[in-house]
Amino acid sequence: MQSSGRGLSVRARVLVSIVTLSAVGIALTGVVAYGFISSDVTSTIDAELRSRADAFYALAGGNDPATGLAWADPEALVRAGVQNAAASETTSAVGFVAGEPRFVPSSATHLALEDDAQFLAAAASQPAGAVKLTTIATSMATYRSASVPVLGTDGTTEAVFTVATDSGARLHELSELVRGFLVAAVIALVLIVAVAWVTVGRLLVPIRLLDEAARDISETDLTRRIPIVGNDDLARLSVTVNAMLDRIERAFAAQRNLLDDAGHELRTPLAVMRTSLDLLEPRDSEQVERTQAMMQDEVALMSRLVDDLVVLAKADRPEFVEKADLDLGALTDAVMRRASALSPREWVLAERSDASIYADAQRLQQAWMQLVANAVKFSDDQTPIIVGSTVDGEWARISVRDRGLGIAEEDHARVLERFQRVGDDNEGAGLGLPIVAAIALAHGGRVDVESVLGEGSTFTIVIPAHGPGESP
Hints:
By secondary structure, the protein is α+β, with helices and mostly antiparallel strands. The protein has helices at 10-60, 74-84, 117-124, 167-203, 205-216, 233-279, 285-314, 328-342, 361-377, 432-442; strands at residues 91-97, 100-103, 132-137, 142-151, 157-166, 324-327, 347-351, 356-359, 385-392, 395-402, 446-452, 456-464.
């Protein structure tokens, strides 16, 4: 069921596709980049926390800087570790003794871990053992922390040195970068829309011209052609459509000419028949016999004209010729036999090829015999008619030569056109040679005419000797 509404234009659909793909590509790039950068920030934070934990271990492995002696107790060690920790707005430390937060850095700009009770509670509850990196999320911030236990002589945890970083604040810088990326992405999409709209519009100019030409073309005006714009696929499409329009125009012209000429040719015998019937005296037996004979001649002429028109009408169809392997020598012999029976005169076989060609035997013989009949018609009975067949490389040639009336040079091309007769006293509808030309053209060939007025004519059908893909 077809929709009654009008859908999006090709330009709009292409634009939507381009913008959608661009937006998806930019979004995927942003997500992947954010993932890599945030992972890198997290890895950097973890590396810094491990470095601070290693520094605390190094401090614990030495002596108390204040006394130069071994550490008196875990509390002194944790106090010294917190004091030595380089605190900043995003990183700080806290020392726990007996589970209670006891020491924080003295710097005024340090991260105030002591003000976040949720963090202190979570950090104090860290299990004893080796250093542990963990993430602690509170209502104030999200922290990444490392806790280092300090063991007493009995192996129990007496104090804990904890260093933490506000990972949310560190990732906030990344969020600012993402917002900048989003602004740039929006600007890029706007530019893509503008450039794509103009570019697609220019690319579709041949389609618009094709649409305009198709709307303007009608049965009465087939002269409109599409302007060729550029040198791309759409330009080649315009060339192809113009070639198709040329063929259609020629076909319509040929059809009109055929109908006009056929009507003209049929009017004469019909007028003769009508006049004869009007003047016929039924009681005059001799007149009835003459009229009967004349009307039989006129009916035969009309029948032949109709048959010829049917042949020409089929000439443009693919099934007009049915090609197969053909023995040209056997075809030559058959034509010579039929020619000898056509007229008792001297028939000369100048050349005979025994080659095998790829052609329609019936149509080729029909065209050949038409040339033979023309030679008989337009030459004296006392003159010979010469027939020949040759194959020269890719081409096969069959010819008929007579010593008859001949054709003026300016009429060589015209005799192959429909309803064209050389000389007003020549009988026939002027369709014989056009049928020969149509058969040759259907084989992918042509008809060559060599003639001198008053000396005779040679008609040669030239067609490809071999089928597609075959070699000579």
